[in-house]
Specification:
Low-confidence stretches: 1-14, 214-222, 487-494
CATH topology of the largest domain: Rossmann fold
Largest sheet: 9 strands, mixed
Helix content: 25-40%
Number of strands: 24
Radius of gyration: 29 Å
CATH class of the largest domain: Alpha Beta
Mean pLDDT: 82
Distance between the termini: 59 Å
Shape: elongated
CATH superfamily of the largest domain: P-loop containing nucleotide triphosphate hydrolases
Strand order of the largest sheet: 13-12-16-17-11-18-19-20-21
Structural class: alpha/beta
């Protein structure tokens, strides 16, 4: 897959002024060729104040705007704020009609031809905040989202804008039935057939509105949106890594710099692309992987690391930049951010067997103007990504740095930034260094909204080139316990038990090396907690070895 290309209008004043809109169109045609579509945006008096023009290009369309200048003439560039609704005069001339908000000008035109009063805003979800929704205050409004993540996100943003009007619009959202992927109102109307009269179309639509969840809000206030659970078909959670990394949801991996988060992501990606089993022995799930990474160079770091872990690199794609069109019509590249949800959706559409998306690290992709410590900012960015994950069915692994903190705080609160990061994620994992063995990494459970809290796992990063080597046995401590163990008092709390464990370990290993899993079983039978045994191991300087890099990890007493 080549880099994702997204072509949109550019901000700024653009070219001009031109004496007529026709001159501006001819200027654009010299760059883009003959115009494919043109939509007129009008003010309340039906004066044309802007033209939105589209060219069907391969692989992505180009949209440009020509606007009327206040002092006369026309310019190439965005409309002056606030932007008018597309279809504004019809809304004002039919004050008692229900207004249907769609995702495109084409859909508005199709609605008008079949007797429905439709509107939309320019530039999709990016234009919601620039548009004057005031003419819909107090009106009956039905949102008709396109059948994809971008359409649902657009409808949510419009609903928020309408709720802020005075009086607020009375809003319902209708998901049109039997739409194809990325389908919209035009597909629904086409399915009714050309023989369906405007009266028939309105009756069908009114039936869908009446059946939509929840009543319309009362004038001047909010109303509940109810959904009867008897109408909800139960379904099982789908897992990439059973019990640990869900499909269609966000999983957060938190750790301090240098703990090996990117190495862990490379190991997981290698297992996905080859279908190898997971470290706990559960069956793997083959598919492709999309890396969104900023700190690791694709050529000298990411590719060699994936090769070392045995990944099928033909199954790995990297998304770091998007291509846009400037004011002069020339393409230019910019860094990808999570606000580019449509670009991400296009990338996933080109990678239909994608099972894992890795965002490493999340802080590099928030974009300018997003405050990582403001919950509303973070949720506005992550919620569309979470919805897209649910639509495409891929697991999204979001890697975040950990802030410094004491062991008395809850582990999940130490993710750098707003609590919205751990709030949006359904599962949280913490990667920490073993307090008793800094070369050993512990992957420990945080919150899990989808399954019972599982056990942690341990691994080391060694070899040339360095790779992840998992231990066979699970580990007991939670992330909170591991953080608490970093405090000076932690090592003194169970000194008598640790001394007893030290004596037991000397006897157990006096005959030679023993596999970690076997030591763990013996410890359980002897009544020792695994954390106490691990602290005793550190005190005795017991070595953890793996002869010739094969077989299970072994514990061995130091040479006398």
């Amino acid at each position: 897959m080549s880099e994702v290309q997204v072509v949109t209008r550019a901000a700024g004043q653009g070219a001009g002024p031109f004496a007529t809109s026709g001159e501006a169109q001819r200027r654009l045609e010299r760059t883009h060729g003959p115009i494919t579509r043109c939509w007129e945006y009008e003010d309340a008096a039906r004066n044309v104040i802007a033209l939105v023009i589209r060219w069907e290009k391969d692989p992505y369309p180009v949209r440009r705007t020509i606007r009327r200048c206040p002092g006369g003439g026309w310019a190439i560039g965005p409309m002056l704020r606030p932007w008018p609704l597309y279809g504004l005069p019809d809304v004002l001339e039919n004050p008692g009609e229900t207004v249907y908000v769609t995702g495109s000008e084409d859909a508005v035109d199709a609605a008008g031809r079949r007797g429905l009063l439709g509107v939309t805003s320019a530039e999709g979800s990016a234009g919601v905040g620039q548009t004057d929704w005031g003419p819909l205050a107090g009106r009956e409004v039905v949102l008709l989202p396109d059948h994809d993540a971008a359409g649902r996100w657009y409808a949510q943003r419009v609903a928020g804008a309408l709720a802020g009007l005075r009086p607020p619009a009375r809003v319902r959202t209708v998901r049109l039935p039997d739409l194809p992927p990325h389908g919209d109102l035009r597909d629904w109307l086409a399915a009714l057939g050309p023989e369906a009269t405007p009266t028939v179309v309105r009756e069908r639509m009114e039936g869908l509105v009446a059946a939509a969840p929840g009543p319309a809000p009362a004038p001047g206030g909010a109303g509940p949106i109810l959904r009867c659970l008897a109408q909800v078909a139960p379904s099982a959670v789908r897992w990439l890594w059973p019990g640990r990394v869900p499909l269609g949801r966000l999983t957060l991996l938190v750790g301090r710099p240098g703990t090996g988060k990117s190495f862990l992501a490379a190991d997981l990606a290698a297992r996905v692309t080859t279908g190898r089993p997971w470290p706990d022995g559960s069956a793997g799930a083959g598919g492709s992987v999309l890396f969104i990474c900023a700190e690791d160079d694709a050529a000298d770091t990411l590719r060699p690391r994936l090769d070392a872990h045995g990944a099928a690199v033909r199954q790995v794609q990297v998304l770091a930049r998007v291509r846009r069109s400037g004011a002069d019509g020339r393409p230019h590249e910019t860094a990808f951010t999570l606000a580019d949800v449509e670009a991400l959706e296009e990338g996933l559409r080109a990678c239909p067997d994608c099972r894992l998306v890795v965002v490493d690290p999340i802080g590099s992709f928030l974009g300018r103007g997003t405050d990582a410590y403001r919950e509303n900012d973070v949720r506005a960015l992550l919620d569309p990504v979470a919805q897209l994950a649910g639509t495409c069915g891929a697991a999204v692994l979001v890697i975040a740095h950990q802030r410094k903190g004491s062991g008395s705080r809850h582990a999940d609160d130490l993710a750098l930034g707003s609590r919205a990061f751990t709030g949006v994620a359904r599962v949280v994992w913490h990667l920490v260094r073993d307090p008793q063995d800094p070369q050993r990494r512990l992957l420990l459970p945080g919150k899990n909204n989808l399954a019972a809290e599982g056990q942690g796992l341990a691994f080391r990063i060694d070899g040339a080139p360095p790779t992840v080597h998992w231990e066979d046995a699970a580990v007991d401590p939670t992330a909170q316990e591991s953080l608490a163990a970093e405090s000076p008092a932690a090592g003194r709390r169970d000194s008598p038990a640790r001394r007893a464990a030290m004596d037991w370990l000397r006897q157990l290993l006096a005959g030679g090396t023993m596999a970690v899993a076997e030591v763990r079983r013996e410890a359980g039978q002897a009544g020792f907690s695994w954390r106490t045994v691990e602290r005793a191991r550190e005190e005795l300087a017991i070595r953890v070895v793996r002869p010739e890099g094969l077989g299970p990890w072994l514990w061995k007493l130091p040479e006398p």
